[in-house]
Design goal:
It is a single chain. This protein is an alpha+beta fold and about 500 residues long. The chain contains 20 helices and 13 strands. α8 runs parallel beside α20 (about 445-460) and α15 (about 290-325) crosses α18 (about 355-370). The chain starts with a helix and ends with a strand. The chain binds protoporphyrin IX containing FE.
C-alpha cells in the first residue's frame, strides 16, 4: 500500500512538473519543440560534439529565427537573426553571462569576461585605455619576434606534402604573444611546449571545453567526484601561482623605482613592456588600489580570452586561403606592394593598416568560422526585447555561427568571398558579430587584428598554402574548434 502511495506521489510530481513545462512552452512567445517529462528537450542536444552546431541549424530551419528549448527545467531561447540579436547585445540591462561561463570561474574568477554589474562596469572603464593604439604599438616587437619562431617551426613541415594540423602550433605562438604582452614576460611556449605552465593552460582549456559539451560533467556534484577535478586543481595551482609571482615581482619593481601613480610612470604606453600590468597595479577604483587577487583574475582572463580566440581565427584564415588560391595570390600581391623589394623586413604600424585586402580576408573567414560561435546571456528580470518576451532566468543563446550564414545578408553564404566586405553599406551591422557588439563587445579586437595581420603576413611571405584533403569537423564550446584539427600543406616561397 505504502509503495503504491509513494509511486503514485512520484508519478504525480513528475506529471505536475511536466504540465508546468508544457504550460511554460505554450505561453512562450517563442516557438520550439514539445517538452518531454523531466528532460524537457534535453534529448535534442544529447548528440556527439560534432553534431551540436548541426542540430542548432536544424532547429532554426524547423522553428524559425528564435527557438525556445527546455533543458531539464531550465528555459533557453536561441536567437539566429540580427533583428532579435541587436536588441539583446545592445541592451544595457542584459549584461550578465550565462551558465556556460561558470566553468571558467575557478580559473578566471570575476575577471572582465565573467563578471557583471558594477564590478564589470568599473573594470571595463579602467581597462579600456590598455587597448589604446599607443599601448598596442608596444606589442609589435613581441608579435614580430614570435612570428619568426613560428616560421621556423612551420618550416619543418613545408615539403608540399605533409598534412599539417595548424591548431596546436598556432596555439603556442598565440600563447607567447598574449603572455608577453599582457604579463610582460615570456614562457617561450613555442620553444618549450613541455613547460608545466604551458601544459597547465592546455589542460584547463580542455577541461572547460569538456564541461561545456558534457551535460554530466557540467553538474558540479559529478565533476567534483571525477579525476578531472583533481587535474583542474593541479593546473590551477600552477597557473595562479605563476600569475601571482609576476604581479608580485612587478609590484616590487615599481616600489623600488618609487613609481606610485600612472602619471608618475611617464613610460606607460611608450616602450613599456609592462603597460597592461602597470595600468592594473597603479590604477585606483573609488580611491582604492585594485587588490592583487582582482589583478590576478584580469591577467588570467586576458590570457585565456586572448589566446584561444586568435588561435581559432588564424587557423581558419590559413585554411580558407589554402583552399582559395586566387584569394591567397591577391593577399600576397598586396604584401609585395607594401614591402616593395624587401619582403624580409617587419611591417611598420602604418603598413599593417595598409593591409586592406588581408583585412577583408580576415573578416570573411571570421564570418564563416567565428572564433566565438555562440554567446550566452542570462535574463535577470522579465523583459521584452524586439517583440520577444523573456522571463527572468531565461538563458539567451546568440548563434553567431548560423546568423553569419544567412542568405538574407550574404549572397551564396557558403562561398568564401572576401570582396563582399568591400561595401559594408548593404549589410546590417549586426549581421557580422565576430567580435560581438554593444557594451560587452570584445575589448581586445584591435589587439587581435594587429596580431593576426603580423602572423598571417609573416606566414604568407614565407610559404605557399596548399589545400589538404582533410575536412574540419566542427565542435563548439566557447571557441569554434574541430574534432581532428584544421589541416593545410605548406611549400616554401622561392621569392625570399
Ligand atoms: C580573433 C580574435 C578574437 C575574437 C574573434 C574575439 C571575440 C570576442 C567575443 C565574441 C566576445 C564577446 C563574448 C561574450 O559576449 O561572451 C569577446 C569578449 C572579450 N574578449 Fe575577445 N576576441 C578575440 C580576441 C581577443 C583578444 C586578443 C583579447 C585580449 C587580449 C580579448 C579579450 C576579450 C575580453 C576580456 C572579453 C570580455 C569583454 C567584456 O565582457 O567586457 N579578445 N571577444
Amino acid at each position: 500500500m505504502i509503495l503504491y502511495l509513494v509511486v503514485s506521489l512520484i508519478f504525480f510530481i513528475i506529471l505536475l512538473s511536466w504540465f508546468d513545462l508544457i504550460w511554460d512552452a505554450k505561453n512562450n512567445s517563442v516557438p520550439g519543440p514539445f517538452p518531454l517529462p523531466l528532460l524537457g528537450n534535453a534529448l535534442c542536444l544529447a548528440v556527439k560534439p560534432t553534431e551540436f552546431l548541426v542540430v542548432l541549424g536544424q532547429l532554426q530551419e524547423k522553428y524559425g529565427k528564435a527557438v525556445r528549448l527546455h533543458l531539464f527545467s531550465r528555459r533557453y531561447v536561441i536567437l539566429f537573426h540580427p533583428k532579435y540579436i541587436e536588441g539583446v547585445v545592445t541592451h544595457s540591462e542584459i549584461i550578465t553571462k550565462g551558465r556556460s561561463y561558470d566553468f571558467l570561474r575557478p580559473w578566471l574568477g570575476d575577471g572582465l569576461l565573467t563578471s557583471t554589474g558594477s564590478r564589470w562596469r568599473l573594470h571595463r572603464k579602467f581597462l579600456t585605455p590598455a587597448f589604446h593604439f599607443n599601448i598596442l604599438q608596444n606589442f609589435l616587437p613581441v608579435f614580430f619576434k614570435n612570428e619568426k619562431v613560428l616560421i621556423e617551426n612551420l618550416r619543418r613541415y613545408a615539403d608540399g606534402e605533409t598534412d599539417l594540423n595548424l591548431f596546436p602550433i598556432i596555439a603556442l605562438a598565440a600563447l607567447d604573444n598574449v603572455t608577453e604582452s599582457i604579463m610582460g614576460m615570456s614562457f617561450n611556449a613555442q620553444r618549450d611546449n613541455e613547460s608545466k605552465y604551458v601544459k597547465a593552460i592546455g589542460e584547463l582549456s580542455s577541461i572547460v571545453a569538456l564541461r561545456m559539451r558534457n551535460a554530466f560533467m557540467a553538474e558540479k556534484a559529478i565533476f567534483n567526484l571525477s579525476t578531472y577535478k583533481k587535474n583542474q586543481d593541479q593546473a590551477l595551482s600552477i597557473i595562479h601561482g605563476h600569475t601571482r609571482k609576476v604581479i608580485e615581482t612587478r609590484r616590487e619593481e615599481l616600489k623600488k623605482a618609487n613609481i606610485t601613480t600612472i602619471a608618475a610612470n611617464s613610460d606607460i604606453g611608450i616602450k613599456n613592456k609592462y603597460a597592461f600590468l602597470d595600468l592594473l597595479l597603479l590604477s585606483e577604483v573609488d580611491g582604492n588600489r585594485i587588490s592583487d587577487e582582482m589583478i590576478r583574475e584580469e591577467v588570467d582572463t586576458f590570457l585565456f580570452e586572448g589566446h584561444d580566440t586568435t588561435t581559432s581565427a588564424i587557423s581558419f584564415i590559413l585554411f580558407c586561403m589554402s583552399r582559395h588560391k586566387e584569394v591567397q595570390d591577391k593577399v600576397f600581391a598586396e604584401q609585395k606592394t607594401i614591402f616593395k623589394d624587401n619582403l624580409n623586413r617587419d611591417a611598420t604600424y602604418s603598413e599593417l593598416h595598409q593591409m586592406k585586402y588581408l583585412e577583408l580576408v580576415i573578416k570573411e573567414s571570421l564570418r564563416l568560422f567565428p572564433s566565438v560561435p555562440l554567446i550566452e546571456r542570462k535574463i535577470t528580470k522579465d523583459i521584452e526585447v524586439a517583440g520577444l518576451k523573456f522571463k527572468k532566468k531565461t538563458s539567451v543563446i546568440i548563434d553567431i555561427f548560423h546568423m553569419q550564414r544567412l542568405p538574407e545578408f550574404y549572397e551564396d553564404p557558403m562561398e568564401f568571398r572576401p570582396e563582399r566586405f568591400e561595401s559594408i553599406n548593404a549589410r546590417n551591422p549586426f549581421s557580422w558579430l565576430a567580435f560581438s557588439a554593444g557594451p560587452r563587445n570584445c575589448i581586445g579586437q584591435k589587439f587581435a587584428m594587429i596580431e593576426m595581420k603580423v602572423t598571417l603576413s609573416g606566414i604568407l611571405k614565407h610559404f605557399e598554402l596548399l589545400p589538404s584533403n582533410k575536412e574540419p569537423e566542427f565542435t563548439a564550446d566557447l571557441i569554434l574548434r574541430t574534432q581532428y584539427g584544421v589541416h593545410i600543406k605548406l611549400k616554401p616561397r622561392r621569392i625570399l
